[in-house]
Amino acid sequence: MVREYRLPPSASSLSASMRDLGYSVETAIADLIDNSISANATTVEIFCDLSVDGQAVVIIDNGCGMDAEGVIAAMRHGSTSPGEERSSGDLGRFGLGLKTASFSQCRRLTVVSAKNSIRSSAEWDLDIVDRKDDWLISILDGDEIGQLPYIHKLGKNGTIVIWRELDRLFEDETDSKRDEIVNEKLDAIEKHISLVFHRFLAGEMKGRRKLSISINGHKIEPFDPFCLKNRFTQRLPEEIIRTGDATVRMQPYILPHHSKLSAKEYDHYQSRSDFISNQGAYVYRSGRLMVWGDWFRLIPKGEATKLARVQIDFPNSMDESWTIDIRKSRARPPHAVRIRLRQIINRISGRSTTVHRGRGEKLYNETVAPVWVRYADQGRIRYALNSEHPIVQTVSQNLQDKQRGRLTTLLEAISSSLPVEMIYSDFSMRPREIQQSLLPEESVIGELKQLKDILFSGAPDNSDTFREVMRSTHLFDSHMDLVERFIRDEFR
Questions:
Q1: What is the rounded CA–CA span in Å between residue 309 and residue 311?
Q2: What is d(CA 403, CA 420) in angstroms, rounded to the nearest whole number?
Q3: Which of 199, 395, 410, 454 lies at 20 to 30 Å from 102 by C-alpha?
Q4: Tens digit of pLDDT for each residue in 51-90?
Q5: pTM > 0.85: yes or no
Q6: DSSP 174-206
């Protein structure tokens, strides 16, 4: 007959394993902010203080707070069931986030919560868990609570989470190297939070007050991945999918070409999220960004969707169908959503291509005779210097046959050695840094006279022809005022 046998896990071994679920410091802190949002907090303050004895990372909110029983429940592993029905604004799921996120960065986790000015506190110390191989927490009294770092910032209602014994944060470094590592991680935390919670920070969540988050007193500004303040961003029709009682909303956007961004916008987006190439779906669960920059293997990333973004919103009641993981860093759309997303991608890819390539195509349409020409030969594409360009034709006519052959060889060699891969890489990652016209101002007039001599030596000159050829070279793009003055003086 089958008999039951109780087999609890080893507290020491399991707690050690739970430290390696794959959290980074920014995703760990984001998990704690989820708890603050679920507690209706409007302010979250993060402090990383290296001067405190033993050092500490502290997260303080002004949410509804917990009583003693609530604090103990929050410290329990698996405090809630993932199948349990929750309020629409609850950003938790497994009841593990506070513990797993914290243990990924520290060995000592202390939580103090105030409800109607009554403070309650409990603490996990992994050294105690290891030594006694048991799930033992410490309940702190009033005097012990009063000795905790930053405890004076906890109001009548709210919660403070304290990480100490930060064995993962410092990566075993000390002094200036430790400070450098911490500063890099603080920068990563700020960028992550500004994106993941941008709708809360911007006050865009209906029924919720605007959320304020700061790091060491520095307020974090929201980062909008869709560039909605730019008038050239295209907002396409929204798609709505209903699955049972739940609704999934899909809002496609086409971002503006980088030339349509102000210098401030470009620097902001390029430095924060690789604006030009971070295409894909942006999946939000109850307003919180979960995953982004992914087409979920429906199509490969490419030029056709370079500027395409799709904002997808789903409620927390659909967590299981989206296979949300503990770290909230993975989500897979259910079948019905994937089908509709594929249709949306097909529709928006043409628009994204038009926006991205529009500036490039202008090069070949704006002049009668461009310097470079594009050939499509039996499914293959190549770029070559235009042998029929007026400058090439004029120079060639004044050469002997042998010299003309050498010129042709030179042009063909330059065309065939065009560094396409390098150009593509630079333009994809740093388009604003590419500047071909570097002619110094003091050389402009001399180059213009030389160009005029090449085109009209011994022949009647024509300002319109000169202007057209001059523009085709793009050599003088940065000095058009000098060009117009030259044309006025030389062509009368």
A1: 7
A2: 29
A3: 199
A4: 766 689 999 999 999 999 999 999 998 755 444 554 544 4
A5: no
A6: -HHHHHHHHHHHHHHHHHHHHHHTHHHHTT-ST
